[in-house]
## 1
Amino acid sequence: MMKSLFLSFLLGSNLFVNNFSEVQGRKWKGEGTTPNLESITIGRCYDYIRVVNPAVGEKNCSELWEAFRNAFINKDPCNILPQHFELFFKLSLHAIPTDKSLFWENNQLLVNSFSSRARRYMALGDTLFGFFGDFLNWCGQENSTGLDYESCPTAAECENNAVDAFWRMASMTYAQHSSGVIHVLLNGSAEGGAYPVKGFFADYEIPHLQRDKISQIDIWVVDDIEGPNIDSCGHNTVQILEDRLKTLGYSVTCTDNYKPVMFLLCLDNPDHSKCTLSSF
């Protein structure tokens, strides 16, 4: 009996210690650095310059990784600024074809499908620098050259975290090098409206568009196939966006449920009432 009680006590103590250690190891609420981050990013770099878009020419993928990593390691993970990534963006920069830029909010997977890895359009995720970091997570630790695989700060915990700093710089760089006809794909079913008045497009991309390089901005507002229809051209947040762009001096058009995008949605939902021939 005493032996059984002693074993139960030891088991309970070990569970407590393990759980306590796990909590102690997780300093932040967000997911930790993506495992094998170095291998993934270097591999993506080679995939991009050899397969996805060889037209960008030669890039030193190991050098890109070092510039990326040095932007946030050995620093306070809550004090990473966009300019810390300047070298990485300088090394990874390449031309964005005229008339091919595709901005978006609240519909990343749809944009990825529609752009088709830069075959139709070149969204941010279709550039080398966007492709490099898409869907990955990373952060470092102060006074350490290692990555934190246990946890990383969320935007709610600190605004100046490494991931958001990277994407702010990516958004600014992408906007600065976009030209010709600019396309913006918005989700008309997004809760709170298709155009977030505080977001990457509003805060980091629109302010860095080069007015003299842009001939027109085409806005496409597309609802989810199941709806609801919350926002549309000339209404709610889309009207706010149209007014802002026109005030800045841009020529703006707006189309609801842009047919080429609707065709793409209907590939996955062929029997939906919105996908009948009469609907088009």
## 2
Amino acid sequence: HAPAMPSARQLRLAASAAGRVASECVRGLGLAVRRHPPTAVSATDEASFASPTCLARRGGGGSAPARNISGIATGREDNALERPPLPPFDDPVAAAMKVRYAEDMWNSRDAHRISHGYTHDTQWRNRGEFLRGRDEVEAFLERKWQREHCYKLVKQLWAAGGDRIAVTFQYEYCNTPDAADPDALWFRAYGNENWEFAPSGLMRRRVASINDVPIAASERRLTWQGDRRPDDFPGLSYWEHED
């Protein structure tokens, strides 16, 4: 069958993804020419959160609600919230931007803010745990980061189309808040996620399968300072032949 012509929404997304924003997102996913590998191990996990630079702007008229940089609607009820880029995700650049935005949010470890990227009735399977709704998601994330310290995450687009995105990811964490503790136990988690989105761009379904591997502190890969992964820090493609 001949490919369908792009819709007006797809064209707006593609246009908004051009230039610097698109190059940052693609580079951040490890798809462009790679720069230096990480050389230093972070001694502390800084608490500052840098706003994501890979947020697409929604096209259209002036009736759209005002948004802050996180995409959260301001001055409206929660049910008016939208989180661009919006589906369909047939444009890989827009899908990559959605993945990078999710990575930035999770690296903030702000459970309440993260939960608002999901629909009120969102459905999750995370490992062997099943969750329903934002309140359960927020409580789960709070528990998660009480036991996973010095958390660093990298996500990468695997496939996308329509209202669905598939993602592969790795994150590293230890069992103590002090990353410099010589007795700290370090782990690297390998995972895959399937995402399904509502028309608002909020995620209504998340299915995640994850395995943890013990590592030595010297084997850490995700060693940037602060929360957000710098745009020139390697993505998962950098290590694809090492596992």
## 3
Amino acid sequence: MGDDNCMARRRLDFSPDGKLLVAPSGAARQSTKADVKTRIACTYIFNVDINRDSKKIGNPVAVLPATAATSLVRFCPKLFTHRQPPANSRSTQDSDIIPMEVDEDAENEPVMMTSDTPKRHKLLLDGIPYRMIFAVATQKQVLFYDTDMDRPFALIDQIHATDLSDLAWSPDGRMLVVSSLDGFCTFVEFAEDELGQVYAPPVRVIPASVVLPAATAEPSTSRG
């Protein structure tokens, strides 16, 4: 973890479905074209699905680089449908994924590989029919991510005079409250469907053959 973040509070968060853990205050090593490795601030994403191999849970499945040390993470409580790619875009191939290597001699610290052009990464959770949105805060910025992209889709900057201290989503997922050490709060409100369409799980139809018959009331008897 990075030690250049002066914030005393460092908040990590689980996804609404409990399958992801996002941890701020990371410090990863990035390999450049000249094979020079530098340390940059980042946020780690771990897949903590109970059905996943326990030996792999300790290694992050994704690293989100940042221009400054991150300190706070908050998931939106709502689930959303996947993004629809533009009609003229080609489908994502495995070659589009920016690989992440692990240096066995560096305490399993993840190494991020750079790419000339930004790429859409493979879904963090294969087979799930929804995407999740989370906010990551530095001392001065709030970045918005979702599980369909490897880069923030929105950024808010310089909204307070001093450092940001906490984040909180409203239950309906349409408002993020940002607090600061200056004693004020900022309310970031999203219009309906601005973040995407809320995911509605499919309705399961129970076959008539397994439907239990309705219980019949026993006739009441009166004692004379």
## 4
Amino acid sequence: NQSSILAVLKAHNLECRWCDHVSDALAAEEHLGSALDVHEAVGVILLAEGAFSSNDAAVSFSKDLFSQLSRNMHKRPRALVSTVTGVASLDACSWKREYKSEAERFHQPYLHEFSGGKGATTLVLAQRPFGPLGFASTVWDSSLVLARYLERKGLCANTTSTCNTYSGANCIELGAGCGLPGLVLASFGAHVIVTDLPSNLPLLQANIEANVKTAPNVRVLALPWIDPGETLPRELLDISERVDLVLATDVFYSLEAVIPLVATLEALA
């Protein structure tokens, strides 16, 4: 694919010296199923190294590179829900936001319209540019898909009436980021604790407070995942004995996080 990489570099007025760098970064990734994957593997790195003057320019490059390489890539599977129970496919929710502008993904609030426990409503979630410690400050596509799934499970089949699916349930969200799935659960009457790393809590807390009328009974707690044999933070020890649902989506992208995630889930079980 060297010729494809060179063609895209030329189209974006980048020097050929970046070719090997791009090629090595792509080869290190096991799965490249979307322009967002390419952007995370290549665009973000080239932006940090000064190849682009803005994130929008890096995103544009990533889109074009993905388009050139897509014939040789395995497509990312879409999230589906069985139609046996009358719940429609969630394909329409998948990967809607990866082509949004920098302003839409990092500066403007995300508005989530849905029919919750209090009827038609809108959640307003602030977003921020990525910081040095992670990528929790934008509403990712995966959280949108999970939120839509939770909404549909919270409504009676083929109606707009609210069932008691989540009412009174004790729920914990891991890696909550901007907090969308947890807020949806709370809007249906669940008692929710949204957790994330300490550095991600200010934005998460702001989003919880901004939506308290629609989604009450939400608490924010820090929860760095634990290693095997360690115990949960004191605030979660008593709560873990009566958890009905633990949810998480798109919470890790490295193998090193698997063992702490499993240990945390076991401690919450």
